[in-house]
Amino acid sequence: MKQSRDFDLLILGGGMAGMTAAIFAARANLKTALIEEHACGGLANWTNTVENFPSHVSINGMELMERVLAQVENLGVEVDQAAEVERLELAGPLKEVETGEYLYTGKAIILATGRQPIRLRLETDSDRIHYCSVCDGSAYKGKKVLVVGGGNSGFDESLYLLSLGVSQILMVEALKECCAAETTQDRLRAHGNVEIRTCTTVTAIEKDGQGCRVTLKDRTNDQSRSVYVDGVFVFIGQKANTLPFRGVVELDRYGYIVAGPNLETNLPGVYAAGDVVQKDYRYLTTAMADGTIAALAAEKYLRDAPAGEV
Amino acid sequence: MPAEGIPITDADFKEKLEHAAGVLMFYKKLCPNCKALEKMLDKFFVANPDVPYLRIDSEECPAAMAAFNTERVPTICVLQDGKVVARKVGLMNLREMTEFYQSA
Question: Does pLDDT of A309 surpass 70?
């Protein structure tokens, strides 16, 4: 029998949206628990430099999120990290989150589970395919790597790989143009050892000695060519972390939560915030706005509910 | 409570790890997967307070990294009498870590 922990509000996910919601909930005197599967910080932890966050010209993503977490903990929020969720009950008046260690209950819940990187969908025998340049980039000092994806992550991570001493980067982007911020693109393109190919996809990766042989397809003429690289780093976007909510919470065709103007979902007392919500723009700043609104809406829901109903 | 662990450096790893037993983690300060693994290890060492926890900062200890033939972080090794008896690169949850340690 797991120990029960009872709260006014549960927040699932400790990225910027979840932590902002926790700050507002705590300040509204809601007894709040924040449950995070890995470490608080979300995708921002994977961002080497954040340059679009007001008040910081440039800051490391993990450093920024550590400051937010300190603020959350200082307000007395119960923060449970490395908490693996085994069961969810969202439909009833009392929301339940069962982790490997505890049974959390709350009168309302905010789903802020964010997104996770999309994996390359290729069968391969290579163990040289990576999704984290900070974790694995040091092994490629003086070597050539392929970066898949020409978005902000691809460019930002390429700059980081160069700073580690990677000698050559070949970047491929499936679209006609790279969609990263112009300033970041300019910074990477200024390096002489970076080649960027658009309209190009990866169709095969095979182990080849200490590195791998990659087949690239030019989408303008359907011609393929093979290149040798020492390693491959993949940054091709993210997908919503909503698998546990399927069939319970209304999702759009891409798996994002459909939420109303106050981030209410189709279930009473269940709110959503941050990247996991169906919307056009996903940034730290929009996640903060979502966290704020969801927490205030949850607080109003709890305040307005007839006594004994929640 | 965060598990602090015993920091091992290039200067002392030969001496301190020669007959060491326990869990050795190679990490980087700003590595997101290392951060997540550390949170899991906090719980592991609460449940296993007698298991020694040793830590090597990969950026500050290239000699130790080379000696343990380790390039990627996070890497977790289980040591017995200074020998690596089990090794795992990447994330684990608490259940996987417990099984990994017990089967080593």
Answer: no
Q: Is this complex scored with an ipTM above 0.95?
A: no
Q: A with B: how many residue pairs have Cβ under 8 Å apart?
A: 62
Encode pLDDT of A163-198 as tens digits. Answer: 999 999 999 999 999 999 999 999 999 999 999 999
Beta-strand runs (E) in A24-101: 32-35, 78-80, 85-89, 95-99
Is B72 in contact with A81 (Cβ distance < 8 A)?
no
Alpha-carbon distance of A72 to A26, in angstroms, equals 8
Average pLDDT of the residues in A54-66:
96
Chain B residue closest to A46 (CA)?
B32
A31 alpha-carbon distance from chain centroid = 26
Domain(s) of CATH 3.50.50.60: residues in chain A: 3-116+239-304, 119-234
pLDDT exceeds cutoff 90 at A254: yes
Asked if A114 reaches chain B (Cβ–Cβ under 8 Å), the answer is: no
Name the class of domain A3-116+239-304.
Answer: alpha beta
When scoring B39, B61, B89, B94 by the number of chain A Cβ atoms within 10 A, the one with the most, hence best to mutate, is B39
Q: Supply the pLDDT for residue A308.
A: 64
Q: Which domains are assigned to chain B?
A: 6-103 (3.40.30.10)
Nearest chain B alpha carbon to A134: B31
User: Helix (H, G, I), strand (E, B), or coil: what is residue B94?
Assistant: helix
- Average pLDDT over chain A, rounded to an integer: 96
CATH 3.50.50.60 corresponds to the domain A119-234: yes
